[in-house]
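Progress narrative, work stream C.
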Amino acid sequence: MTTEETNVDLKEVETNVDLKEVETKDDAEPKEKEEDEDCAPVAADADATEADVSEADLDQEEQEKLPMTWGEGEGHRAVEAPSAGGAEPGATGEKNGSVKLKIPEEETEEVKFTGLTKEELMRVAGTPGWVRTRWALLVVFWLGWLGMLGGAVLIVLQAPRCRDLPAINWWNEGPLYQVGDIQAFSDTRDLKGVEQKIGSLSQLKVRGLVLGPVHVAPADDAMSLRFEEVSSEAGSLEQFKSLVQAAHKKGISVVLDLTPNYQGTSGPWFSNTSVTSVAERLKSALVFWMKEGVDGVQLSGVERVAAVVPTLWADIRAIVQNGTDEGPDKRVLIGITEQSSAEEVSSLLSSSGVDLLLSGVLRPPAADPSQSLQLLYSSHSQSQLAWSLGGPAGGHLASVGGAALLRLHQLLLLTLPGTPVFNYGDEIGLMDEDTKFPRMLWDSEEELNGTLQEERVERLSLRRFFQTLSELRVKERSLMFGDFLLLSNSSSSSSSSSSLAFLRVWDQSERYVAAFNFAAAESAVLQLVDVALPPQAVVVLSTNSSALPGDSSVDLKELRLGPQQAALLRFPYTG
């Protein structure tokens, strides 16, 4: 039933009520005319008329109060009277006057798209328009594909080629750490104590541990020399094996010092008459220690044995440097010489055939280090260069170079091209006292007062500086195996002999400038001008952080360094 039909029925109800009122009025008019004739009947008729009108009004009000529903079949309205209890049957709780409408849902017929049949598709596909369209799309696709391929090839050809990484050995990957005296280094005064400190060395990014000598070698007594026996003062063979295993787990290789007469005064190889017999015995000892897992050997006085018994020396080199089935990895042969002239060191490095040669080239008071550095770098691969100030028996860094220059020398050794070699304790500024092998200082968490606390704070600061530099060297390619370029100082106010600056560069990696002022009392102004240098660089590390704070930018044309100050600077590759 629609709303319009509802309105029509409502009007019909109102019309019926109005007609009743009109009929009542019409009946009342003749009765008024006959009022004089018979008053009593007139009054009765009037009362009846008023009752009818009232009854009609009440019927209309009651009908308006009733809810209205619609029949489902014929669409007519059915008005239901309220029940005796006041409830409205069929109203289902609706308020008076509400209308319930039920609109039948229109049935819509679902349209399904079946698409074209195969025959229809074939007919359309074969039309000339679609054939031309397909060919056009095919041509566009292949042209786009060839264009992208050509663009990729062009990008590859125009992009700068990356340099192939150089072939390096494990001993070029990080600093070497020498422990010449086992008893002085460890708390337990034996090889077991050294093993307990492997974790500490790993934190410093140490790549190789150089031990000993630890073999039995009475002073100046070649007949009592026993290469294959561990001295009871150092520990036992079992302790040595355990130490090697622990070091290898931490990625640290172990090099054994087998200098024959390390406790005597007649020379590392005893007398000239005993060199041959000692070298023969050393050959069999080398085979023994290689089987025990050592990764290399260190020998002092290599110039003597190489000159006196060249054939035996060649055999020694072959045993150490050539891999075997038991140990295919390459082992290092480190030589030690007392020579300090760059020319002599360069000649011995070539003639002896050692992998690394420790010398006194940088030992103070050496001449201008820049000339020695340039000669050695230009004459040899940087994988053959090793840098040290003291050497295993020459003293510690803080004693040889001076405590005030400790950070400067740490920065120098860790940024030069080649392998830096340190003595135990160089990372904390350990000083030589009455011996070249002082007791190592291991800081604990115990409370200290006054001077002792200040000294510990300084040692920890030195260790952090060393560790930061060592980590940087391992991470940055320019410092690991980058090219080395000495930078000239055009400033007339600074002495060239007391200052040094060089550049480390590798391919497209970040570049590093290391600058040093060795003068004890004078500041230096370095005017570094080179085509490879930008106007400014950023400070990475400085031995005086208050003067040159980290991450600050400095002018390379006017680089100011305080007395005994050094700085490591960085700038990006710009193409």
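Work stream C, second folded protein:
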Amino acid sequence: MEISFWAFVVSILLLFLASGSFSIDNFHQPFPIVEPDPGHTKLRLSREGLEAISRITTPIAAVAVIGPYRSGKSFLLNQLLSLSCYEGFGVGHMRDTKTKGIWVWGTPLELDIDGVRTSVFYLDTEGFESVGKSNVYDDRIFALATVMSSVLIYNLPETIREADISRLSFAVELAEEFYGRVKGQDVAFEPAKLLWLIQRDFLQGKSVQEMVDEALRHVPNIDGNKNIDQVNQIRDSLAVMGDNSTAFSLPQPHLMRTKLCDLKDGDLDPMYVKKREELKELVASVIRPKIVQGKPLNGKEFVSFLEQILEALNKGEIPSTGSLVEVFNKGILERCLKLYSERMGRLGLPMPDQSLQEVHERSREEAMKAFDEQHFGRHHAKRSAEQLDEEIKEVHKNVIMMNEYHSSRLCEALYTKCEDKMDQLQVLRLPSMAKFNAGFLQCNQSFERECIGPSKASYKQRMMKMMGKSRSLFIKEYNQRLFNWLVAFSLVMVVVGRFIIKFILIEMAAWILFIFLETYTRMFWSAESLYYNPVWHFIVATWETLVYSPILDLDRWAIPIGCIAAIWILYWRCYGRRKHGSRWLLPLYASHKGGSNRPRSD
């Protein structure tokens, strides 16, 4: 009866403690924060450890040690905390696992990180590959430690095995699923700094960084073996984190490993003591506060975050297999987006909308196909694929805007060129409808041929308006200008025929033309009917034939031809008569009286 009574008292006390009404007075000890359920498949929270964390009001950082069971994780943490085995984390010398779940040292180290006072907690995790546990349980421990920690120490004995790489890759994949899929919220945060810690009996030979690089190096796959491809993808997922990881080597502290807890620093290998202090400095240099959604977490926020993560994990909201490595997918996404951008960047803008759309669809299909072939995971892959599609749309929008800009510039330049051309044709020295029509057609054809892209339609309408106005204005002024030119031409020919060439027929023809234009047309034809008269049409056709043809553009060559003609006439007037005599004179004005030439009386 007495034994039963005391058992009852102990059970009541345990229930009292579990209820949370009992407050912890001594935090200088380890506390469990996550424990396994009785079936050792799922995890559950421990109120003791959560109370030790939630009391912290400053930003929190966590250092977690993961690795195989019986690999010295608890001893390593005690060494980092400068604690003995009897006051720090429990160290087991038997073949079973001492640490169950995840434990935290109740008293954090206070560090000044980038000017911010930060409380650093050290976490001890249950080793994997021990007897009586499922692989899913190990994966959950790994994933949870990865998500919680700011620095993740991967403690490995002697070397890196293929199983170590696969297991860590899976833990990273699983943890990455938490980053954006906790209760439908975006809980993105910086991944933990990965520290490869290899403990070995000797430090000669390859450095640990060389060992890590070699372990993550691609395995040749000439035959295209799918299994080798899968292993190489796992290596890629870890290699992408290269900028976020480092490696460190630690020698064994002493040959008598079962007696380590009873040995002082003076009894340990001096090289080990030296490297241990270097490891402390390394951890302190890389650790940063835990940041979620851009905000550092204090104790209560850290506990709330941990509760959400664990609840999602146990309910299966986050898959335990085939999950996505977000960092790796991010690199793939960037490469696929770059592939699309490069394809679109090679385009010679501007180009027609239909052609641009066809190139966009081909480039998008190529980028999405590359992503489908390389991505990790299923659920996150869908989200990343949607993100890639959205970013492709943004790039496509920018390309469309650039195409519109270049098209507008090109069409504006062609429009301005044609506008200037039309203005020049309006002020021809010798008005020519044929030349105007030729310039009009040339502008139209060059615009149709060279103006491409989305701005062509609007600028084409502007071109039609501008050229229509120019044509109407030219036709309106053409007849009047031609009439004035013919009047001036008749007067000039009168002077030329009478005083220069002295050919009376030319002079008479010029007078007839002048009288016809200035008298007859005004007496018998109106200004409007003149331009529709067949005689005027004949005059216009003759004028157009003389002024412009594909062979001769008199408007361009009028001045040179006039200069040449003036020089020839001047030469003939000065030297031709002396050299050739009167036979160069026109008969009408030649006089032979007395055998000598006599000047005209008039």
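Residues 2 and 8 are 10 Å apart (CA to CA). No further action is required on this item.
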